[in-house]
Amino acid sequence: SQTIHQWPATLVQPVGSPLSLECTVEGTSNPNLYWYRQAAGRGLQLLFYSVGIGQISSEVPQNLSASRPQDRQFILSSKKLLLSDSGFYLCAWAQGRVESPLHFGNGTRLTVT
Amino acid sequence: AQSVAQPEDQVNVAEGNPLTVKCTYSVSGNPYLFWYVQYPNRGLQFLLKYITGDNLVKGSYGFEAEFNKSQTSFHLKKPSALVSDSALYFCAVRDMTSGTYKYIFGTGTRLKVLA
User: Fold this and answer.
1) CB-based contact (8 Å) between A46 and chain B?
2) Could you tell me the domains of chain B?
3) Total number of domains in chain A
4) Which chain A residues contact residue B46 at CB under 8 A?
5) Chain A neighbours among B 8-37 (CB < 8 Å)?
6) What is the pLDDT of residue A22?
7) How distant is the Cα of A100 from the closest Cα of chain B, in angstroms?
8) pLDDT tens digits, residue range B75-98?
9) Which residue, A27, A105, B57, B98, could crosslink A91 as a Cys pair with Cβ 3.0–4.6 Å?
């Protein structure tokens, strides 16, 4: 069966520090990968998605970036965090078929101080 | 533009009563619809999906959803609510425009089941 791992679960970082959140998927190959941010426990904002190694689509211009160095690895990064980067970050994957649902990791709670 | 709407921010229901969480959609072409549940500080869990076929879709934890093409709705239902069903529920539709792979989510409905 497929599983998705996302870490760390919580993170407290000072303003201006770098960020690296990692997500890996097991049990499938060539998944579509996604990073979402959820603010105030409600709406989901799509940040990035990837349909293959090295292929990144950005939805929101900001100081975050994403990379996919391996087929089942998706990394969210920032060189300098802002206070507004605080939130709940969710990684997700889906198979390439149109009827495939998204499957989410357990999220990372990021607090920028 | 493709979209989903969840008109209720919160739904309260007594334990043992039937529950309905509403979702309406706007898409061009055939809709691919999904329901998710989120518990506090956790990721979203997939409940069920509608692709084609029967208008009543059965999913996890006793949930089902009714697809209504004429009303462009996909309401989530459960015959008898449990306190443990209290959570945040999201409706989503697959964005099929321009060959993208995105999913469009509603704003979420908080379900509170009262003992």
Assistant:
1) yes
2) 3-114 (2.60.40.10)
3) 1
4) 101-103
5) 32, 34, 36
6) 96
7) 9
8) 999 999 999 999 999 999 998 776
9) A105
Residue numbers in A near B49 (CB within 8 A)? 99, 101
pLDDT in tens, A51-97: 999 999 998 868 899 999 999 999 999 999 999 999 999 999 999 88
Residues B105 and B95 sit within 8 Å (Cβ to Cβ): no
The residue-averaged pLDDT of B32-38 equals 96
Higher pLDDT pick, A72 / B29: A72
Residues 51-70 of A with CB under 8 A from B: 51, 59
Residue B112 to chain A, least CA–CA distance (Å): 15
DSSP class of B61: G
The Cα-based distances of B62 to A17, A63, B18, B65, B81 in angstroms read 45, 42, 11, 10, 9
Question: What is the CATH classification number for the domain harbouring A62?
Answer: 2.60.40.10
